[in-house]
Design brief:
mainly beta, Cathepsin D, subunit A, domain 1, six-stranded mixed beta sheet, three-stranded antiparallel beta sheet, 17 strands, 39% strand, aspartic-type endopeptidase activity, Aspartic_peptidase_A1, hydrolase, aspartyl protease, PEPTIDASE_A1
């Protein structure tokens, strides 16, 4: 929870992110490297996720992206070898509660086409430009006005329930393409 310093009211519900890893072609890379745990805000109003800068740097290194690629984007087809299928094993894995809860986000959810005035951005060769669906937040403790955020790029793969009475958040994995339902309440 994050309390507004002016009103003293709980205005944000945060959860502890304890690990982030990236699995491509069956090979897993740890990308959080000691920058976690951190409290993150789950925000459906944010298209991208905002995470510690060293996580973005480590992901870029694994993917072979340069700092220019992170700033200006990169051709979307650069990663066409990885599946755009939600059942693929090419995933970002976000862990909470020291690994007892995790959410796998399909790789393609974090490679986002860049847009400008509603249209696709293209490079000088006519290639559609994509950006990484995570942007860095500068080192240092987040403040009330600048928090780590898991936005839509994460939330499309998560099932989130807010228990307002007990001030708790529950996070679970989304089951894509399910033909049955097994949601229970106690």
């Amino acid at each position: 929870m994050l309390v507004n310093p002016d009103s003293g009211q709980v205005e944000r519900y945060e959860i502890m992110l304890t690990d982030v890893s990236l699995t491509l072609n069956g090979s897993t890379s740890e990308v959080s490297n000691g920058s976690l745990p951190v409290a993150v805000l789950l925000d459906s109003g944010s298209q991208l996720s905002q995470v510690p800068s060293d996580i973005v740097d480590n992901i870029a290194a694994v993917l072979g992206l340069t700092s220019s690629d992170l700033r200006n984007g990169f051709p979307c087809d650069m990663f066409s070898e990885y599946s755009a299928d939600d059942t693929s094993n090419d995933i970002f894995s976000f862990s909470f509660d020291n690994g007892t809860t995790y959410v796998n986000v399909p790789f393609h959810e974090l490679i986002v086409p860049d847009t400008n005035d509603g249209g696709s951005v293209t490079d000088q060769n006519g290639n559609i430009v994509c950006v990484l669906g995570m942007v860095p937040l500068a080192p240092g403790p987040p403040t009330y006005d600048s928090s780590y955020i898991l936005g839509d790029t994460f939330l499309r793969s998560a099932y989130v329930a807010y228990d307002i009475d007990n001030l708790e958040i529950y996070v679970g994995k989304t089951v894509f393409n399910s033909t049955t339902s097994n949601i229970t309440s106690e």
